[in-house]
Amino acid sequence: MLRPGSWPCIILLYIYGMLATSLVTQAVPIIGDIAQRFGLSHTMSGWVISIPSLITAIGALLGGWLIDRVGDKRVIFAGSMFALVGNIGVFFSHSLGMLFFSRLLEGVGYLSLTVGAVTMVMRTTSGPRRNIAIGLWTSHTAVGIGLTLSIVAPLAGHGDQWRWAFGGHAVLMALLALAAPLLPAKTGDEAARSLSDIWEVVKRRAPYRVALAAGASAFIQTGIMAALTVYLAKTFSIPIKTAAGIGTVAEVFVVIGCVAVGHLLKAGLGARLLALVGGLTVLAGGIGLYLPATALSGAAVAICTFSIGIGLLNGLIWTFVPAAAPSLATLGVTSGLVSQACYLGVLLGPPAIFSSLHPGGWTTRVGYVLIATLLQLAPLPIWTRKARQPVAAQNAHQVLGHG
């Protein structure tokens, strides 16, 4: 068994999160082949992609309570099995019902893995290591998306070869299911949890403040990044491949921003200053990207600037999740609530940005950037004299008080 809070344990949990992200994005490059095979409309194709995210957006809070009740290790193992069975189901699917049911199972796996893994990261770490680990964790989505798209894309346009995106992922999930016993279990002296624990979380303001900030971050990040290739190709008349390459580079800067958070806090940089730097960077990059006078080179610089800023903010926001929990025993419910807000942002962000891709729509997009930045910064508990560094949260639930 891996030692709780050790780097091998943290890296393994990161891999769980990264491969969980693939459960959603593995369908993106090959959705045209899937649509052709099953005769899907554009709307139905969108649902094939979105079902796993939708399950998490609806059920993350209850999933977090289940983690508190039965343990994150068990939920991670169960999530690996759901994802494995779902992948196998898609691989062998020959009917629309089987396809959607299998994607539903993958959604349960996605929820279990993402909420379970981040809860274990927060449960098994403290102090500066917790902030570094959480900052690293917040980069798993960008890394998972980038790797999945690059690996799966070559399968597109080759008949039924798309099935191997799910077959290959099934093999990886089987390996992660076998690795689950290595994860540290909860201590046996913790009291059994009840549904009233959900009320203990939802009746307090602190979790909602962090959830609002996290949801706004997810909204603007996924919205801008999802529409980026189409926006750049249409606006600057460049090939899709070139536009996608710019987006891939930008994702690297998201990772840099996320990973930097914990190290900057450990070095003594104040959370308030870090939030201001991240917010200003997001504004500069997001607004610069959409100004009509911006050239292609300027847009490339702007999206990379936005990416490092959103990475800083996202990483910082998640360092406040342990402090928002009423107690360590309700950490799963709290992370579930924040995750639920995130995936609502993931669902709503892309349609909002795509709907503004029309002549004159740049003002709407700039408005989204301004509002989302404000909503990321304003709820954080860093603007009063009593505000404390997340790095000081050795006993996390004592930092924000009880809302």
TrEMBL record:
Q: Cross-referenced SUPFAM superfamilies, in alphabetical order?
A: MFS general substrate transporter
Which keywords annotate this record? Answer: Cell membrane, Membrane, Transmembrane, Transmembrane helix
Q: Which Gene3D superfamilies match?
A: MFS general substrate transporter like domains
One GO location term (cellular component): plasma membrane
> Superkingdom of the source?
Bacteria
Q: Show the InterPro entries listed in the entry.
A: MFS (IPR011701), MFS_dom (IPR020846), MFS_Efflux_Transporters (IPR050189), MFS_trans_sf (IPR036259)
Where does it live in the cell? Cell membrane
**Single GO MF annotation:** transmembrane transporter activity
Transmembrane parts of this sequence: 12-32, 44-67, 74-94, 100-122, 134-156, 162-185, 206-232, 238-261, 273-293, 299-321, 328-346, 366-384
Q: Its membrane topology, per UniProt?
A: Multi-pass membrane protein
The keyword Cell membrane appears for this protein: yes
User: What region holds the Major facilitator superfamily (MFS) profile domain?
Assistant: 1-390
Q: What is the first-listed, main subcellular location in coarse terms?
A: membrane
The record's listing under PANTHER family reads: CHLORAMPHENICOL EFFLUX PUMP RV0191 (PTHR43124:SF3), PURINE EFFLUX PUMP PBUE (PTHR43124)
Provide the protein name.
MFS transporter
The source organism is Solimonas marina
